[in-house]
């Protein structure tokens, strides 16, 4: 199901058609905090999410090692370091 975008009159994907990726590393307290927010928002909206570990992927490490945790929405960087629940929710529903 698509919803109309109020800004452009285009149909935006329904939240369930979106995806979120949390890029993190073990032992990172900011990553743990980010995961709590991602789990809550994605759970509320029925959005698929996954996590990827920069210590297991050299490309991700090279791209994001100074910014983790990083949240991608539909493959595009949404935020890093601190995840704001309202901002993530808005990005997934607009």
TrEMBL record:
<dbReference type="InterPro" id="IPR036249">
    <property type="entry name" value="Thioredoxin-like_sf"/>
</dbReference>
<dbReference type="Pfam" id="PF05768">
    <property type="entry name" value="Glrx-like"/>
</dbReference>
<dbReference type="InterPro" id="IPR008554">
    <property type="entry name" value="Glutaredoxin-like"/>
</dbReference>
<protein>
    <submittedName>
        <fullName>Glutaredoxin family protein</fullName>
    </submittedName>
</protein>
<dbReference type="InterPro" id="IPR052565">
    <property type="entry name" value="Glutaredoxin-like_YDR286C"/>
</dbReference>
């Amino acid at each position: 199901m698509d919803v109309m975008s109020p800004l452009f009159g285009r149909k935006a994907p329904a939240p369930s058609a979106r995806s979120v990726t949390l890029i993190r590393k073990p032992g990172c307290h900011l990553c743990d905090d980010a995961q709590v927010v991602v789990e809550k928002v994605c759970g509320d909206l029925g959005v698929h999410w996954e996590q990827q570990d920069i210590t297991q992927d050299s490309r991700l490490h090279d791209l994001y090692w100074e910014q983790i945790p990083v949240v991608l929405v539909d493959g595009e960087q949404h935020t890093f370091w601190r995840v704001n629940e309202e901002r993530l929710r808005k990005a997934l529903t607009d």
